[in-house]
Design brief:
Layout: H1 4-11, E1 16-18, H2 20-47, E2 62-64, H3 65-78, H4 83-96, H5 98-104, H6 110-115, H7 117-124, E3 129-135, E4 140-146, H8 152-170, E5 175-178, E6 187-194
Helix pairs in contact: 1-3, 2-3, 2-4, 4-8
Length: 195
C-alpha cells in the first residue's frame, strides 16, 4: 500500500514526463477494467492526494516524473497486478500512445527503430539518456539508461515497453529482460532485447 512517505519520496524525484503517459494509463485501464475501473483509479489517486487527472492530461504537457511512478503503483495495488502484469501493461503502451505510433510509422528495421530510442526517450522524459547497441550476430539489442535511478516498477514496465517497440519491427517472437551485466559505471539500467 502506498504510504504518505513513499508518495513524498516519489514526488521529490527529479525529472518530468509527458502527460501522454497518463492518457496511455487511462486507455489501458478502460480496455482492461472498463470505465468503472478508471473511475476507481481516479478515486484512489484523489484519496492519496495526488494531482493526476487522467481525463484532462495533455499529451505534450510536462508533469513530475514521480506522478508516473505513483500512477503505476496505484494501478498495481488497486487491480492486484503482478510484476508480469506491469510488464504486459508496458508492452501494451506503445500501441496506445499516439507519440510512439507517429515516431515508429516510418521505421521498419530493428536497427533503425532502436537508433531512434534516444529521441523517443527525450520526447517522453526530461531526465536520463537512452543508448542502444545493435548486435546482428547475437540477434539482440542492448538498451541502457544513464542519468536516472528508476524504481523497480518502472523498470518492469520498460521491459514490456522495449519488447513492444521491437515487436513492431520483428513480430511477436521477441523477448526483453533486464540485464544487470550492462549496469556498470554510469549505466543505471540495462535491458537486452532478443529474437
Amino acid at each position: 500500500m502506498l504510504t504518505e512517505t513513499e508518495i513524498k519520496r516519489f514526488l521529490a524525484m527529479p525529472g518530468m514526463t509527458k502527460g501522454v503517459v497518463f492518457q496511455t494509463d487511462a486507455e489501458y485501464i478502460r480496455k482492461k477494467f472498463g470505465e468503472a475501473g478508471l473511475a476507481q483509479l481516479e478515486a484512489r489517486v484523489k484519496e492519496l492526494g495526488v494531482p493526476i487527472d487522467y481525463r484532462k492530461a495533455k499529451a505534450m504537457e510536462w508533469l513530475p516524473l514521480g506522478l508516473r511512478v505513483i500512477s503505476l503503483l496505484a494501478i498495481k495495488e488497486l487491480f492486484s497486478l503482478s510484476n508480469e502484469d506491469i510488464k504486459a501493461m508496458g508492452n501494451t503502451a506503445p500501441k496506445l500512445s499516439f507519440l510512439i505510433k507517429l515516431l515508429l510509422k516510418s521505421f521498419i528495421s530493428i536497427r533503425a527503430t532502436f537508433a531512434k530510442a534516444p529521441e523517443m526517450w527525450q520526447r517522453h522524459y526530461s531526465i536520463g539518456r537512452v543508448f542502444s547497441d545493435y548486435h546482428e550476430t547475437d540477434r539482440c539489442v542492448a538498451v541502457t539508461i544513464t542519468g536516472i535511478e528508476l524504481p523497480p516498477i518502472m523498470v518492469g514496465y520498460l521491459e514490456g515497453y522495449f519488447q513492444r517497440i521491437a515487436q513492431y519491427s520483428l513480430g511477436p517472437n521477441v523477448r526483453c529482460d533486464r540485464d544487470p551485466s550492462l549496469e556498470k559505471g554510469e549505466v543505471k539500467h540495462g535491458f537486452r532485447v532478443s529474437w
